[in-house]
C-alpha cells in the first residue's frame, strides 16, 4: 500500500510516524510546500526504522505530486492550525484554498485514491474536498470522530478510575467545540452502562471536557495537538489497508442518512478497502437526535462560508 500525507507539520509527521510504526504500508510519501521540510522529516523518520522496527519506506518531496502517483490513500493535513482562543471555524479562509488545491492535485496523479481530510474546520473541508473533486462519497473520509472518541474514552477512564481498555464510547456530530455529541448514555465500562457508576454531574463533566478537548490542548501547547490526531489517522488508514471493516465515527457526505442532507458530519461508518464501506444508522434517543441536528445546523452554516466551485 502507498500512502501520501500532505502537510509535513506536526500532524502530518505524526501520521507518518504512526503509520510507519504500525508497519502495514509499503511506502509513505510526505509532501509539504516548504522547501526541504518534508524531505527533512522523512529522513529523520527513516532514521527511526531500525530503532522502531519497521520496513515501510518514507520519502519527502516539496510540492511534487508526481511522487504521489498511484497512492491508495492520501491524508490531507496541510493548512494552518488554530492558536489559543481561536475556533477551528476561523481557519476556513486560509485552509479552504489549500485543501481544494491539494485535493485536486492528489486525484490528478492518483485517480483511485481514498482521501482522508484532517485540516480544519474538518467537516467543511471534507465537504469542500467532496464537491471539488467529485469523488464518490465512499472515498472521502473526514477524520475527527475517531480522535474525539479517543478523548472521550480518556475522560471516561479518568472519571471511572479504570484502564482505558475497559471503556467504550463514541462521539458523533461536527468536529467543533460546540458541535460534538459524545454519546454518554451509550458509553459502557465492560458492557455496563457508565450511568451505573457515574452521577449526572460527573457525566456532564465528561461530555463538556470531551467537547473542548482540542481547545484545552491548544491552550496548553500554544498550537493544536498532534499525537492523538496522528494516531487516529493511522487507525483509519490501517482499517483501509487491512480491509478490517472496523467502525469509527467519521465525517461523510450524508444524503438522507440520519435525516440529514448535503453536508459532511461525523456518524458511525465501517472502514475497509473501499474507504467508507457503509454508513451505520444506529438508534439515537430523541435528545441525541436533537443534538446531532443542532450540530448539523452549525456545520451547514460554516459550509455556507465556502465558495464551492465543483
Ligand atoms: N481533524 C482533526 O482532528 C485535526 C487534529 C489536529 C489538527 N488538525 C488540523 O490539521 C491542520 C494541520 O495542523 P498542524 O498542527 O500539523 O499544523 P502545522 O503548521 O504544524 O503543519 C501544517 C503544514 O502544512 C503545510 N502546508 C501549508 N500549505 C500547504 C500546501 N498548499 N501544500 C502542502 N503543504 C502545505 C505547512 O508548510 C505546514 O508544514 C490544521 O488545520 C489543524 O487545525 C485537525
Ligand atoms: O483543536 C484543534 O484545533 C485541532 C484538532 O481539531 C483537535 O481536535 O485537536
TrEMBL record:
It catalyses: (S)-malate + NAD(+) = oxaloacetate + NADH + H(+). Residues 147-297 form the Lactate/malate dehydrogenase C-terminal domain. One of its GO terms (biological process) is tricarboxylic acid cycle. The keyword NAD applies. Substrate binds at residues 82, 88, 120, 151. It comes from the Bacteria. The active site is at residue 175. CDD domains: LDH-like_MDH. GO terms for molecular function: L-lactate dehydrogenase (NAD+) activity; L-malate dehydrogenase (NAD+) activity. NAD(+) binds at residues 7-12, 32, 95, 118-120. HAMAP family: Malate_dehydrog_3. Belongs to the LDH/MDH superfamily. MDH type 3 family. Catalyzes the reversible oxidation of malate to oxaloacetate. PANTHER family: L-2-HYDROXYCARBOXYLATE DEHYDROGENASE (NAD(P)(+)) (PTHR43128), L-LACTATE DEHYDROGENASE (PTHR43128:SF16). This is Malate dehydrogenase. It comes from Flammeovirga pacifica. The lineage of its organism: Bacteria, Pseudomonadati, Bacteroidota, Cytophagia, Cytophagales.
Amino acid at each position: 500500500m502507498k500512502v501520501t500525507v500532505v502537510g509535513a507539520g506536526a500532524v502530518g509527521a505524526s501520521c507518518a510516524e504512526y503509520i510507519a510504526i504500525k508497519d502495514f504500508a509499503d511506502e509513505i510519501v510526505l509532501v509539504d510546500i516548504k522547501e526541504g521540510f518534508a524531505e527533512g522529516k522523512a529522513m529523520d523518520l527513516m532514521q527511526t526504522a531500525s530503532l522502531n522496527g519497521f520496513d515501510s519506506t518514507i520519502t519527502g518531496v516539496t510540492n511534487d505530486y508526481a511522487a504521489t502517483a498511484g497512492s491508495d490513500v492520501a491524508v490531507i493535513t496541510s493548512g494552518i492550525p488554530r492558536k489559543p482562543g481561536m475556533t477551528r471555524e476561523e481557519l476556513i479562509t486560509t485552509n479552504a484554498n489549500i485543501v481544494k488545491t491539494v485535493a485536486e492535485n492528489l486525484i490528478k496523479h492518483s485517480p483511485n485514491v481514498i482521501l482522508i481530510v484532517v485540516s480544519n474546520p474538518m467537516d467543511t473541508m471534507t465537504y469542500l474536498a467532496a464537491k471539488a473533486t467529485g469523488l464518490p462519497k465512499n472515498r472521502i473520509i473526514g477524520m475527527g470522530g475517531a480522535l474525539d472518541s479517543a478523548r472521550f474514552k480518556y475522560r471516561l477512564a479518568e472519571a471511572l478510575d479504570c484502564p482505558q481498555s475497559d471503556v467504550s464510547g463514541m462521539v458523533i456530530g461536527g468536529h467543533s467545540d460546540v458541535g460534538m455529541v459524545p454519546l454518554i448514555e451509550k458509553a459502557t465500562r465492560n458492557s455496563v452502562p457508565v450511568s451505573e457508576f457515574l452521577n449526572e454531574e460527573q457525566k456532564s463533566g465528561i461530555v463538556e471536557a470531551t467537547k473542548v478537548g482540542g481547545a484545552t490542548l491548544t491552550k496548553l501547547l500554544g498550537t493544536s495537538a498532534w499525537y492523538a490526531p496522528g494516531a487516529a489517522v493511522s487507525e483509519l488508514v490501517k482499517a483501509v489497508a487491512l480491509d478490517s471493516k472496523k467502525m469509527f465515527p467519521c465525517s461523510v457526505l450524508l444524503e438522507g442518512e440520519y435525516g440529514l442532507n448535503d453536508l459532511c458530519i461525523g456518524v458511525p461508518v465501517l472502514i475497509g478497502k473501499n474507504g467508507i464501506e457503509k454508513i451505520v444508522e444506529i438508534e439515537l434517543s430523541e435528545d441525541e437526535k436533537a443534538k446531532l441536528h443542532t450540530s448539523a445546523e452549525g456545520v451547514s452554516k460554516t459550509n455556507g462560508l465556502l465558495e464551492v466551485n465543483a
